[in-house]
């Protein structure tokens, strides 16, 4: 309910006609209610009819101009760009993904398949994974072998061949022919080219620390040679005849445990039987014992 200010109430009281004392109570109430209703009736300000008519005309003109602009922009587009190249594919031709199957119109050598044995099976789980696989196709370097079966002669020949491809001058090439593997290499660029050529020829990775420390081609030869298998200590001891002549010395090809010693003197069978009867582990695994109860007691 709208509130009437103090000034408005004062004016309303002045505007209210005076009533004589002869007017009845009901008539006085009716007159005062009518005057209050006239004061409380308020309405929102409405624009003039001309202003409303102009706004309606202005809106219609803006809609017509927008329709004309859209129609002109649509006519400017080439309709051939929006024609689908394949059924169900409503995109420009240049936006079609790579690897899409070609049609007879695109490829003159197109041959329609008559058998399905060489065609791709569409709809399997593997096919779906390949279609929706968003992982990048990473293609790394070729695999590097840590060792190979090159002999020292073959390794030296490959090092010299790689040095010739490293772009040495004529004078340096003549010096290389004379010195061979003793040829000095101190230039860092020459070392890098030599290392790159060796990696391509031998499929082996040469560490940077070895490349920087190398001063001659002999060092590069040692870097690409395969390491020999480490010798066992037992074989070296067995090869020493003076050491093996000692009767107090025995050399075995594998590790010896207390079990081997007990078997050598024939006590292991007795020890194993007692351990099983008492329910104790023999080797630490696979324990099968009767916990001190004989088979006759179990049968009873």
From TrEMBL:
Main localization, broad class: mitochondrion
Subcellular location field: Mitochondrion
Any single GO CC term annotated in Swiss-Prot or TrEMBL for this entry: ribonucleoprotein complex
Organism superkingdom: Eukaryota
Region (Disordered): 60-83
Keyword RNA-binding assigned: no
Keywords: Mitochondrion, Ribonucleoprotein, Ribosomal protein
Family per record: Belongs to the mitochondrion-specific ribosomal protein mL50 family.
Protein name: Large ribosomal subunit protein mL50
